[in-house]
């Protein structure tokens, strides 16, 4: 093989190697960017999850507060019902005693 052909082959190989090296650099840059983007997405997901948990916690606090209100209202209603039962019992007791008494007074007044 003549020397000129060998030099031409070496130049071609160097050019090919330089092209491959450039492509490898570009691929490494792309990989680095993808890695950075992946890290950013992971952080964003963590932040999104933290925000979601914070929102759920706030909702839970609101629901617990509402539940406390409902329980207090229930206790108030139970007290009111107990008072109403006592009043009704008193009315019934007075009626049991008063109606025959009124009836007998009415009959004696005739």
List keywords for this structure.
single chain, 110 residues, mainly alpha, rod-shaped
Structural account:
With 110 residues, the protein is mainly alpha-helical. Helices cover 96% and strands 0% of the residues. The chain has one helix at residues 3-108. The longest helix has 106 residues, at 3-108. It is rod-shaped. The mean pLDDT is 93.
Tell me the series of helices and strands, N- to C-terminal. Answer: H
- Unreliable residue stretches: none
Category by helix and strand content: mainly alpha
**How would the global form be characterised?**
rod-shaped
Biggest pleated-sheet summary: none
Give the count of helical stretches.
1
Quick check: average pLDDT?
A: 93
Number of strands: 0
Helix fraction bin = over 70%
How would you sum up this structure in a few lines?
The protein is mainly alpha-helical and 110 residues long.
Please write out the topology.
Blueprint: H1 3-108
């Amino acid at each position: 093989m003549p020397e000129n052909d060998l030099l031409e082959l070496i130049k071609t190989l160097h050019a090919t190697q330089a092209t491959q090296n450039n492509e490898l650099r570009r691929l490494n840059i792309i990989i680095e960017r993808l890695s950075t983007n992946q890290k950013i997405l992971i952080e964003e997901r963590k932040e999104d999850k933290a925000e979601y948990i914070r929102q759920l916690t706030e909702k839970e606090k609101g629901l617990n507060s509402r539940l406390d209100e409902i329980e207090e209202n229930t206790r108030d209603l139970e007290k009111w019902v107990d008072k109403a039962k006592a009043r009704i019992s008193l009315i019934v007791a007075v009626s049991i005693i008063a109606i025959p008494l009124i009836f007998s007074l009415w009959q004696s007044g005739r």
